[in-house]
Amino acid sequence: MQKEKLRFIRKSKGITQKQMADFLCTAISNYCRKENGEVKIIKNEWEKIAKFLDVAIEDIFEEDRFPDSTGIKIQNHINTSMIESLQDYIRLLKDENTQLRAKIELLENI
Q1: Is 45 in contact with 24 (CB distance < 8 Å)?
Q2: How far apart are alpha carbons 46 and 80 in whole angstroms?
Q3: What is the pTM of this model?
Q4: Which of 31, 52, 76, 108 is within CB 3.0–4.6 Å of 21 for a Cys-Cys bond?
Q5: What is the 3-class SS of 71-101, one letter each residue?
Q6: CB atoms closer than 10 angstroms to residue 14
Q7: How many Å separate Cα 24 from the centre of its chain?
Q8: Nearest 10 degrees: Cα torsion 67, 73, 78, 83
Q9: 4: which residues sit within 8 A by CB, 6+ positions away?
Q10: SS3 string of 25-57?
Q11: Separation CA 67–CA 19 (nearest Å)
Q12: Are 49 and 62 in contact (CB under 8 A)?
């Protein structure tokens, strides 16, 4: 989730992403990911950014779309689905292996 309020205020004050990155002692690519919502902005960074922009945190802060607990649930669901798919695939391979062994045995007896 893009940080639209942060981006709007930063631009309105004429501050570049590079200046923000330098202030936060991070790479510009990392700051861009933060502003684009790809990387979480932690609490003390919000405080530093607000101070640098001379605004209240409430003026720039936006919640992440998926809080940590939801992200964990989604990750667990993905892991469960993956495990079930892998188990199905393993069963399929075992069945094919059994069939091939039977064919080999028949060919050896010819």
Answers
A1: yes
A2: 35
A3: 0.57
A4: 31
A5: HHHHHHHHHHHHHHHHHHHHHHHHHHHHHHH
A6: 7
A7: 21
A8: 150
A9: 62
A10: CCCHHHHHHHHCCCCCCCHHHHHHHHHHHCCCH
A11: 28
A12: no
